[in-house]
Amino acid sequence: MSHTTNQRIVLASRPAAEPTVDNFRLETVPVPELQDGQVLVRHHYLSLDPYMRGRMSESKSYANPQPLGETMIGGTVGEVVATRSPHFAVGDHVVGMGGWQQYAVVDAAQRGLLRKVDTTHVPLSAYLGAVGMPGVTAWYGLTQIIAPKEGETVVVSAASGAVGGAVGQLAKKRGARAVGVAGGADKCRWVVDELGFDACVDYKAHADVRSLSQALKEACPNGIDGYFENVGGMVLDAVMQRANAFSRIAMCGMISGYNGVPIPMSAPQLILINRMKVQGFIVGEHMEHWPAALAELGQAVATGALKYRETVAPDLAAAPEAFLGLLKGKNFGKQLVKLI
Amino acid sequence: MSHTTNQRIVLASRPAAEPTVDNFRLETVPVPELQDGQVLVRHHYLSLDPYMRGRMSESKSYANPQPLGETMIGGTVGEVVATRSPHFAVGDHVVGMGGWQQYAVVDAAQRGLLRKVDTTHVPLSAYLGAVGMPGVTAWYGLTQIIAPKEGETVVVSAASGAVGGAVGQLAKKRGARAVGVAGGADKCRWVVDELGFDACVDYKAHADVRSLSQALKEACPNGIDGYFENVGGMVLDAVMQRANAFSRIAMCGMISGYNGVPIPMSAPQLILINRMKVQGFIVGEHMEHWPAALAELGQAVATGALKYRETVAPDLAAAPEAFLGLLKGKNFGKQLVKLI
């Protein structure tokens, strides 16, 4: 076979605070020979996601840290280019966790590592976004924690991101008012005009919690019943000031604190005063919900009801820079790396 | 009838920060004549509870503020001394919300205002504590939010208080490890020796979160699965540092912040990292659970399985001082005012 060398990116060192490109190293390694039961996948796209920041550090988190010198973890979509498994044929489109590299050798017998997908109605890259982990994350937090009733108001931060965009659109579908928080007028305009949110607040236009909270009040005249949290910090404080009785917060991410900056919650007594429920979750721990979520998301993308946007880095060497940009909100929609 | 004058305590002014005795005023007023359907209750005991502090202020909370010049709100137990209702007879023991006064005229037809209680096996005062609102509060937060599994560890703050003491004993009954946090060696000793908690940490012996967190680690070798929050501030931060994956916090009170001192939660990202659920509640909004809770609590007190302690102020004039002491943790167990 012709697929003999593999470019990959490994974690070279752990960041002290803000990560830099020097924390990564590009390597060229041989593609190992396939063993019985294995398939070789050539990656078309690599997914970049905020959770990867957590894996770079050694501090306590829900997942083990990424080992130094090993290929960075990450979701991938691609095509089977060689197979010694009866379950996969050359040419199959697959989604997996191949990591930051061009090729992955996968043990096809191990359940859940590799999944065949149909690209007739859904583009391959969408399986890393709206019809993949980000989409299911949005679906789970919205339907299982926030569980909006018709007419309620749902706010989501990082609203133009892969998760946030899906949260608002799924909330609208359920009859709720969807309000985004995003960074910049361009993103906010797109969230309202293209994704159909009812309103979007540009947090960069507000210097403090008081000002942001006032903007949220105007965007949410009936208060806030559900909040899907991706960022933490000032946005969380401002949302809590507008939270209604019995409101729910789904804690999905707190990107503003990923570099170790303290992000205290100013007034936890509001949880009591408003009888709120605040719940953290990791979508990989709720596999039983994935089939229902993927069915709804796949259908919605196929029919054009669920919209999304992608920011695509051109090759593997561009992945570190793209990832650092994602942590700063430089991406617009789902951040991908194109590998082929 | 001979019950013609009534002493009562009204809210004279709102506290700027820490309340003082000057915020209250003792008045003597005539007892009004009974109308058809009304009963006159002579109070034996008045209950003092932390939630009353919230009612003294005008700031937004779950309940309307206590109006100035009107009788302070509060739970009471007493005896019917005159009746124009077919539902109550003179001599009936009753529990109600009679407020800070010697007598209350109650519209007996209005459901839920007055409840007849049996003092054969349960002392009358216990209906303001272990078999009353504080007991049901403990029961609801423990069973409906924390829902401990056998072998899990449940921590409760203000552990020697009316609510906290019940939380730990109910947790033990369900096979959990019960660990208290209380102020002072005397209270801690009593919580362990008399109430049967597995351990109790004296927060006054710790100057900072780090030290308190270390003490909690020793008291909770398997981490913390459930936390019943009555105080907020440093104790909450320390508990969260020891929280296990999928742990639950029932937010019942945050007395450390009642005077307007900021009590930020230092690391809300732990809610995400540990996939915690943090939920506020007010027991009066869950009346459907009261019968089951009161049945268990009444049975447990009658058989001696559920223990409690009372601090009793001698007369109505002593109520303000006793209430201010309660807010500072000067009480030991349920704080009552004896009126007869």
From TrEMBL, chains A, B:
Residues 19-337 form the Enoyl reductase (ER) domain. It holds the Pfam family ADH_N_2. InterPro entries: ADH-like_C, ADH_N_2, ER, GroES-like_sf, MDR_fam, NAD(P)-bd_dom_sf. It comes from the Bacteria. Keywords: Oxidoreductase. The keyword rRNA processing does not apply. This is NADP-dependent oxidoreductase.
